[in-house]
Amino acid sequence: MDGLHLVKRRIKATPERKGSIVTKAMSIHHSNVALLDPADGKPCRVGWSFIDGERVRVSKRSGAVVERPKLPTRKDIEDGEKDTPPDITSKKTFDIGDITAGMKDLRVSLMGKEVNQEPKGE
Question: Could you give the residue ranges of the DSSP H alpha helices within 4-119?
Answer without folding.
Answer: 86-89, 96-111
